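User: Earlier you gave me the apo prediction for this protein. Now I'd like the version with zinc ion bound, so I can compare the two side by side. Same sequence as before, with the ligand SMILES added.
Assistant: Got it. Here's the input I'm using:
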Amino acid sequence: MQPGVAMNRILAQLIKLAISFCVGLFIGTAMMIHYESNSFKPWSWDSPPIIANCYGDDFNELYVVRAVDYWVVRDENISFIVNDPPQSVCEKDFLDGFIIFKKGIMPNDSTLAYTKRKVRMGSLRAATVYFSPGSFKLELLIEHELGHALGYQHLEKEGHIMHPEWGKMGTDF
Ligand SMILES: [Zn+2]
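And here is the structure of the complex with zinc ion:
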């Protein structure tokens, strides 16, 4: 066999490998998206997260405790609440093991708050909830966002805590 032929075979093998990797990645990503959009709770935490309240002084601890209680009686686990976290925690977008509450700029006028989640190897690693100024005072909004941080998606059922519209949220779960 000539060296050139051997090189071509190796190249052909490498191309095949690269193609199957890309197809695998594509199928994997498509399956993840399908799973996330078809499951009410696609993700969970491996160990109970810590809540760091980085919003500021006016976001009273009692608001956080109330929202945590809502989920604790529904079998979710929270480690503990940190009310005055150090700057090293609050300056981060994500911190593994933490749900961070922050004041944030909303993507549009109709958004009151939103939650970003970091998922690795099928588990929740970190979540950050952004509130528009004062929106934490709206009834059930913290409970709703904490629901996202714990892995829940929306459910269009009137009176349900995970209803996407604030006006139609209720305490049902
Ligand atoms: Zn929501």
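For your comparison, keep in mind: The mean pLDDT is 93.
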